[in-house]
Specification:
homodimer; 350 residues; Rossmann fold; 15% strand; DNA-binding
DNA sequence: CTGAAAGCGCTTACAG
DNA sequence: CTGAAAGCGCTTACAG
């Protein structure tokens, strides 16, 4: 075949060995780094390698050492909303940052729904394409963690583990506590009727936040009307509909909304506007994630900033630590969220 | 070592062979799919595999067939802005979608700047960790494409290739034509003094758009004042500063702005507001990317929607086609952008 | 349709 | 410090 330019590293360890007049194992030793090699032969080998444009084949090495320096992650590529949310880019940034630092790469696979997630993850692990996996979805209806643990696979979870897998390694934000603090903040501003608009009720974050909401209300001695609790499935339109559903009984209508993401908060804003409700004069609202759009809304959206990037970096670091120590990961980390105060919240005028 | 649960596929092809009482090569044949195997022995092998929880080791297979079913992509994880822009998630969604469909996975590596990009890419390829690579950045000051081509490596570029590599495979949006159309649209609404706010002038997209801008102005017979051309480096603050710089000479101030991303458009909006300039009454503006925030600004932002996801999917598909056909990729695709009209643009009242 | 053998390109205990 | 050998777990031309 006719080829222009030098083809990618066609040479192997034995070509280099021949040229440097040493045994292939010696070449291997200078490239795997640790072994004791005399300056002289190292020099010769390096020169030979140089001139042959040699780079060790990572796949061959992986087969030999049974390690790929790769960590896996599975993403539900069929859900458009997944990529629109600011969780995703921050997740990737954190994973990449930590992996790069440790000389690892990310093997990313798609999945066509939550059921497929552990299938894909297991495939990656069973076929030895990655050394471990970080799991991001913790849906209560799909036992991804259980499925993976059954196979005794290095895993760290971003998010809380389900109760039966409490001893798995995980890192998460303080969802319950942070939501509770938001509620307390709103209560402190005079709000008494506060709505909670969650995402998908089958996800554990949403439950944790709901719990924080209930705790906050209870701590303030406020009753919770079930009319104030709604699930917008993380979509703009879900937030919009939540307004409708939570304001059927006008006498009991909320004066403040907490939304589990900013997109729903935007939908809530739209719903309030359509009803000519002054924002934040009559009704305040707080979003979650501090997405790029938050600061630019009218009014600017107060939002609970969740440290996704740091969480992802911590998860990857933890996973790599465990991979390299050869132990099954355990233990956890809880990272603090932080409320960014902006114009969408106001003291309630009585 | 003490282990609970069944460990991940410890068995190999020869364990299965022993159990099924066939030769290992036969086991290999039933798993690699193509070979002719009698129903009877296939059955026996499958059962043996089942009971041993066998899954073929992909790394070993890769070493043997010299193919990983993995495509590489390098991301500049050190640039925060990269992950904030809507380009990134759409890129990933498209790459994943196409890869998944073809049974490929993505090997994602970080890079600590544009100079590092081809170093990382080359490393992935030279060490045979991926079968090909999709390159996303085309910076005019760093010859990533040239570096990769020199090594005769399967590559497809998302974006226009630099002139000296015109024959590389690429897919891109119609940046020049689309920008030109935006300008013509603004001209049609009566605007005569139109500003162009680009991103990083060292990136080729930005040049292409600038060219479209100049073409559009020229076609309308309008002069271009160099004061109207500014570069905001894709940052909100860059857009804000562009307002300042383009309005020093008030008599010559633009009545419309085109920004090469939405974030800069948001900065422009802020700059205009601070000067109490009515939007869109006095000044119109158009962004690019139709990011999630665009629709929710006040006024809602008109934006040029670039089909990043489709571009990425097309690039991955093209790359995989080429990998599987064993040829060096060539040819290209140009995908159409689409202007989403919203409230930030108005007919100029004279 | 199936077996036996050589090979993919490394690594690493074992000698010396 | 270096060599010789066996092995990592597959694949695939070559026979039959």
């Amino acid at each position: 075949m006719f080829c222009v330019g030098q083809v990618l590293s066609v040479s192997t360890i034995r070509d280099v060995a021949a040229r440097a007049e040493v045994h292939p194992s010696t070449v291997s030793r200078v490239f795997s780094g640790n072994a004791q090699i005399s300056q002289a032969t190292r020099q010769r080998v390096l020169e030979a390698a140089q001139s042959l444009n040699f780079q060790p084949n990572a796949i061959a090495r992986s087969l030999s050492v049974r390690r790929t320096k790769t960590i896996g992650v599975i993403l539900p590529h069929v859900f458009d909303g997944y990529f629109a949310d600011s969780f995703f880019p921050r997740l990737m940034a954190g994973l990449l940052e930590a992996s790069y630092q440790r000389g690892y790469r990310l093997l990313v696979g798609g999945c066509n729904g939550y059921q497929d997630e552990h299938v894909q993850a297991l495939d990656i692990l069973a076929t030895r394409q990655a050394d471990g996996i970080v799991v991001t979805s913790s849906r209560l209806d799909v036992d991804t963690v259980g499925e993976l643990r059954r196979h005794n696979t290095p895993l760290v979870l971003i998010g809380h583990p389900p109760a039966q897998h409490a001893d798995v390694a995980w890192v998460d934000a303080d969802n319950c506590a942070a939501t509770r603090q938001v509620i307390e903040y709103l209560v402190g501003l005079g709000h008494r009727r506060i709505a909670y608009v969650g995402g998908d009720p089958d996800s554990s974050v949403v439950k944790e936040r709901l719990e924080g909401y209930r705790e906050g209300m209870a701590a303030a001695g406020l009753p919770v009307s079930e009319e104030w609790i709604d699930f917008g499935y993380f979509a703009e339109d879900g937030g919009y509909q939540a307004v409708e559903r939570t304001r059927r009984n006008l006498a009991n209508a909320p004066t403040a909304y907490y939304a589990a993401n900013d997109l729903m908060a935007i939908g809530i804003l739209r719903g309030l506007r359509e009803r000519s409700i002054a924002v934040p004069g009559e009704v305040s609202f707080v979003g979650t994630n501090d997405s790029p759009e938050a600061a630019h809304l009218t009014p600017p959206l107060s939002s609970l900033r969740v440290p996704y990037r740091q969480m992802a970096a911590a998860a990857a670091t933890r996973l790599i630590d465990y991979i390299e120590s050869g132990q099954q990961p355990t233990g956890h980390e809880l990272l603090e969220s932080c409320l960014i105060e902006r114009g969408s919240v106001q003291k309630l005028e009585l």
